[in-house]
Design brief:
Strand content: 15-25%
Shape: globular
Helix content: 25-40%
Structural class: alpha/beta
Number of strands: 23
Distance between the termini: 19 Å
Bound molecules: shikimate-3-phosphate
Strand order of the largest sheet: 2-15-17-16
Length: 426
């Protein structure tokens, strides 16, 4: 339980932790090289630590020293059969990507996870992997954890797969399996989702060709790891400060070293469309990933309507954007967000149930959309997070910008942002 009091403004500088998606991929890909990789600004959140534990169980040598991690790869064909069941905890990225990576291996692996992950759909990743020849068995007609991956009967085959939903986790699982296939694999996405796996694999020398929504992956014999991977700050974590600094009066804050990969910057585009002032400063590149400082100043917002192609570029930021919309003038309509129903919790249901306690009659959802009526009166409220880190952080900034809030579970922020409250309450 934690009580957050209203805060006046945000000033000066904020340093945010490493990107969660990139941290997972850095551990996994470094494990497949033949040398030691130093990972700088690694996110030591619970999700990425689940990936570390799984890769250690698969025989990889990983040492964590503060925000640096040293991974000594075993080579593309050097993973070993784990002695234990692999526990992905709360992390969909760990589970889905590792289903792809373990599908072609010559050994058996069983995965489990927490109560949230046990409910999340896995058929979306098992189906394409099975088409490639993987032997994967789960509970409930293969839809849920626990899931066992058997040694495939023969080498996986390349496929052409048209993805029904834009999901970077599903795409990445197929890409990792495709490295081991007999023939090339082509993936067609409905809209581009985050492309960190493709970018990082290219920096490891893999042959991956991207054109529009199509990705072609060629089988690899080995990967050549760079000596160092620098993880940019997580724009999904920066999102809370982008919103809070915009809606609080008299704020001006510089958020340092934020990843601005074009598949992740939908939050900046929409906040700007709503009237926010966000400047991108000192843009730099490392390992194919762009990062920059974001300077945000208080602004008056207006409601907007969006959906379609931009949704995968801001899918994790919708709880934060819903807070911004509650302070805007007029209605905001967010279409094509049915995927939020299968995140760590059903985020559409959670937003409607809990955000309306702070600003009554402001949030409405259909199966696939969210409407926010901006400008209504705000109250102090006691809210539930449903053990979802992004609900906890969005509720906290909502309360901080309104009349305060009490959340039942503050600990869950450790999934992606262990120091969130230190920064908020500073
Ligand atoms: C992620 C992909 C997204 C995102 C998740 C992280 C990734 O999920 O919501 O937080 O690292 O690939 P989907 O692939 O299910 O859209």
């Amino acid at each position: 339980m934690k009580k957050i009091l209203p805060i006046k403004n945000l000033r000066e500088e904020i340093f945010i932790p490493g990107d969660k998606s990139i941290s997972h991929r850095a551990i996994m890909l470094a494990s497949l090289g033949n040398s030691t990789v130093e990972i700088e600004n690694f996110l030591s959140g619970a999700d990425c630590l689940s990936t570390v534990a799984c890769m250690k169980n698969l025989g990889v040598d990983i040492k964590i020293a503060g925000e640096k991690v040293f991974v000594t790869g075993k080579g593309l064909f050097g993973l070993r059969e784990p002695e234990n069941i692999l526990d992905a905890g709360n992390s969909g990225t760990t589970l889905r990507l590792l289903l792809g990576l373990t599908s072609p291996q010559n050994f058996l692996v069983t995965f489990t996870g927490d109560d949230s992950l046990k409910k999340r759909p896995m058929a979306r990743v098992i189906k394409p992997l099975a088409e490639m020849g993987a032997s994967i068995f789960g509970r409930n007609d293969n839809k849920n954890l626990p899931i066992t991956v058997l040694k495939p009967q023969k080498k996986l085959r390349g496929i052409t797969y048209k993805m029904p939903v834009a999901s970077a986790q599903v795409k990445s699982a197929i890409i990792l399996a495709a490295l081991y296939a007999e023939t090339p694999t082509t993936i067609i996405e409905p809209y581009p989702s985050r492309n960190h796996t493709e970018k990082m694999l290219k920096s490891f020398g893999a042959n991956i060709q991207t054109a529009g929504n199509e990705i072609k992956i060629f089988p690899a014999e080995s990967l050549i790891a760079p000596a160092k991977i620098i993880v940019p700050g997580d724009i999904s974590s920066a999102a809370y400060w982008l919103v809070l600094a915009t809606i609080l009066k008299n704020s001006r804050v510089k958020i340092k070293n934020v990843g601005i990969n074009e598949t992740r910057t939908g939050i900046i585009d929409i906040l700007k469309k709503m009237g926010a002032q966000i400047e991108i400063l000192n843009a730099q590149e490392s390992g194919g990933e762009l990062f920059a400082d974001l300077l945000v100043t208080s602004s008056n917002l207006r409601g907007v309507e969006f959906g379609g192609e931009i949704i995968p570029r801001l899918i994790d930021e919708i709880p934060a954007l819903a807070v911004a919309a509650a302070f805007a003038e007029g209605d905001t309509i967010i279409n094509d967000v049915g995927e939020l129903r299968v995140k760590e919790t059903d985020r559409l249901a959670a937003i409607v149930a809990e955000f309306n306690k702070i600003s009554p009659k402001s949030f409405e959802a259909t199966e696939n959309s969210l409407t926010i009526h901006g400008g209504n009166k705000k109250f102090f409220a006691e809210c539930k997070t449903f053990a979802d880190h992004r609900m906890a952080m969005a509720l906290s900034i909502f309360g901080a910008a309104a009349e305060g809030v009490q959340i039942d579970d503050a600990d869950c922020v450790k999934i992606s942002y262990p120091n969130f409250f230190t920064t908020l309450l500073n």
